[in-house]
Write a structure and sequence with these properties.
Blueprint (H helix, E strand, L loop, with lengths): L13 E7 L6 H9 L5 E5 L4 H11 L5 E5 L6 H14 L4 E4 L11 H10 L4 E8 L5 H18 L12 E4 H10 L8 H11 L4 E8 L11 H39 L1
Parallel strand pairs: 1-2, 1-4, 2-3, 5-7
Antiparallel strand pairs: 4-6, 5-6
Length: 262
């Protein structure tokens, strides 16, 4: 294990967490990039096809630093991540660095996420995407709508981007929140998990990171289905915010006072 991923004072033992569904052509490169930074890797196969299963079997063979968890059938990104978070916690890891299997995220930024997590072990470290011209414009503009609702749902601007799938979770509070109430099953996972962890009092650190949309890349985002899910999620979160509003506002006031005193 490299210094960037080393346990610090017994409170920082990270792994990488990759949900995968049929990304057989990019998973080996993603895992190699993570291993180059010394991270053990937990892969959750969300009911992939036979071709992807064969690639995964070959990838993990005789490699104890790679752990493969298989779901019996496709259940959605959120279910895969939830299963992976619980498995990582059970295996003694304190943090899980979520990253997509499709090559969108820049593994060269892994040391920055780990360093931020080591310095702030109780925080959730969220990627803030820096896009190139490959980003679909519809997806980009849709993110701005979600940003607005997340700011309402948390009564703050702590989360700069709630939809980025490159994120470091502190496992103790994340798994406690998951045990309290399951996270969503599909593409609405990232945003709801971030909002609910802020409600729980988990601090947020935001890091800019390059995100690309590879040519001929495989995306499982379904415009109508997933936008309906996201709309329902925001309705649910706005309602959930209302009884929490006094506590969220009080917390915001205390932080502002602490910043002024510093």
């Amino acid at each position: 294990m490299t210094a960037s991923a080393a346990t610090i004072d017994g409170v920082f033992a990270p792994c990488a967490l990759i949900p995968i569904y049929n990304h057989k052509d990019t998973i080996a490169r993603t895992v190699a990039g993570l291993r180059a930074h010394g991270l053990p890797v937990v892969i959750v196969d969300d009911g992939s096809n036979e071709a992807t299963r064969l690639v995964l079997d070959a990838l993990i063979a005789d490699r104890p630093e790679l752990q493969l968890l298989r779901l019996p059938h496709n259940q959605g990104k959120g279910r895969a991540l939830s299963a992976g978070l619980v498995a990582a916690r059970a295996r003694g890891f304190t943090h899980a660095l979520q990253i997509d299997a499709d090559g969108q995220h820049d593994v060269d930024d892994v040391p920055r996420f780990l360093a931020e997590g080591a310095s702030h072990p109780h925080a959730m470290v969220c990627g803030r995407p820096v896009y190139d011209d490959s980003v679909p414009r519809g997806r980009l503009y849709g993110r701005y709508i979600t940003h607005f609702f997340v700011w309402l749902e948390t009564l703050s601007m702590e989360i700069h981007d709630s939809m980025c799938g490159f994120r470091l979770y502190p496992l103790a509070p994340t798994c406690a929140e998951l045990a309290r109430k399951p996270f969503p099953a599909r593409m609405d996972f990232d945003t709801e998990a971030a909002v609910r962890l802020v409600w729980r009092g988990v601090p947020v650190r935001n890091l800019p990171t390059r995100v690309i949309y590879p040519e001929n890349g495989l995306s499982h985002f379904r415009m109508w289905r997933d936008n309906v899910r996201i709309s329902a999620m925001h309705t649910r979160l706005l309602i959930g915010m209302l009884p929490r509003a006094p506590r969220l506002l009080w917390r915001r006031l205390r932080r502002a006072e602490a910043a002024c005193a510093a």
